[in-house]
Amino acid sequence: MILTWKDGKQDKLHLFLNGDYTMTVDRAFAASAGLHQNQELDEAELALLTQQVNSRRAFNKGCELLTRRDHSRAELLTKLRQKGYAAGAEDALEQLDALGYLDDARFAESYAAELQRSRHYGKRRIEQALLQKGVDRSVARDAVEALTFADEDLDALIQKKYLRYLSDEKGVRRTVNALLRLGYSYEDIRNALRRVEEDTE
What we know:
Arc Repressor Mutant, subunit A, alpha+beta, four-stranded antiparallel beta sheet, about 200 residues, single chain, 10 helices
């Protein structure tokens, strides 16, 4: 098979094999792969080139996703597969990992802190959210344990969002169930409700 190319927009090269369009790469990749016009490729060389191109595309997409926000390894793998980069996803993750762009512990700590701050999640709900992102259970637990949960924060949440429901038993049950769903323990909820009640008397 004879490899040729035509210039595309910006730094793109459209590759052709025996005159048939095959794939598009950038000039930097072509140079790093040692490609040249009228190069002869056998089946094994074509398979290797295809693998390298797929890995490069997945790597670039992975970098793009990581510039928007941090991801867990499992989450990024899922996204790459969903967006059509399955063929090179595993190789791309290895490269991203080697470069330090992927770190589940760092992601878990950052995401756990965000959930605590912005969504007011308790320990159980944060750990559950991390597990859903594909974080290993021990890493998720370490991230949760690194957080500081102050009584005052739960008290403030109750006063801000649930105080108006505490005038009757039905409202108290509703509040308890809502806080349980947010991941707080029954004991912490009960103690917080007692403190809020004492403060409002």
